[in-house]
Write a structure and sequence with these properties.
Strand order of the largest sheet: 2-1-3-4-5
Number of strands: 5
Strand content: 5-15%
Number of helices: 10
Order of helices and strands: HHHEHHEHEHHEHEH
Helix content: 40-55%
Largest sheet: 5 strands, parallel
Shape: globular
Length: about 250
């Protein structure tokens, strides 16, 4: 019988099969706020987050740096710290760089108090190289993660101007796939600047020769900066940063 129990059972099975074949679009991992869970980070990542929040609460913060290990390196005595003391210590600067962070980790920190209670004039954002270098996220996903961070910053620091830096060159050759991927990300995030609240700056040429080969004196491991590398960063950023800090 056409409308009998067997007919309805068949329809129900067909419906389940059709539903099981449907694919739901999941947001990229780069946009989902997540704590670092890597073994190397478990012992220090959350305590550092809490420590930097405490530091932020101890005095005015006019300038904040947000990023991964490259930003974290401003604190290292044998690389970035001398340059930090020269250029930023007197500017009431706070370092929110965390080694190993991808965009989703920065999002988690922002959503869990990293910038609560402060109102910096400028936030310098450099993030994304671990999305492309560790997980080989495609350019659209990494750029979307950075865009999501900008939206979170606007929500939590509505009066703060953001200096969005291009991902620095990595690996030795300009033909390396990771380097090419970062270039693609940079093309996308450059379009996020509006010249009012978000400003884009690409200082990558300071770290390569005229053929695009990385200067290993500045980046011995093809990623992290020496003291000279940090000095170049500070000098390349200085004119625009000065204007934004007014």
């Amino acid at each position: 019988m056409r409308n009998g129990p067997l007919f309805h059972s068949i329809l129900f099975v067909l419906l389940l099969l059709s539903l099981s074949g449907c694919k739901t679009t999941q947001p990229p991992l780069a946009t989902i706020a997540t704590e670092q869970t890597a073994d190397r980070a478990v012992e220090w990542w959350k305590p550092r987050h809490l420590k930097q929040m405490t530091i932020a609460g101890q005095g005015p913060v006019d300038l904040v740096f947000i990023g991964d290990s490259i930003t974290h390196g401003w604190e290292k005595e044998n690389t970035g710290l001398p340059v930090w003391k020269q250029h930023y210590q007197q500017m009431n600067a706070l370092n929110l760089g965390f080694g190993g962070d991808r965009t989703e980790h920065v999002l988690w920190r922002l959503q869990n108090g990293a910038v609560d209670g402060i109102a910096p004039k400028v936030a310098v954002l450099l993030i994304g190289t671990n999305n492309t270098g560790q997980r080989f996220d495609d350019a659209d996903d990494t750029a979307l993660g950075i865009k999501t961070i900008l939206a979170e910053l606007h929500k939590r620091l509505p009066r703060t101007k953001v200096l969005l830096l291009a991902i620095l060159p990595m690996k030795l050759s300009p033909d390396d796939n990771h380097r090419k991927l970062n270039v693609e990300v940079n093309h996308r995030i450059a379009k996020l600047a509006d010249g009012k609240r978000v400003f884009f700056l690409d200082i990558g040429k300071a770290y390569v020769d005229d053929k695009g080969v990385l200067n290993t004196r500045l980046m011995p491991d093809r990623l992290h900066l020496t003291t000279e590398g940090y000095q170049l960063w500070a000098e390349a950023m200085a004119p625009l940063l000065k204007d934004l800090m007014q």
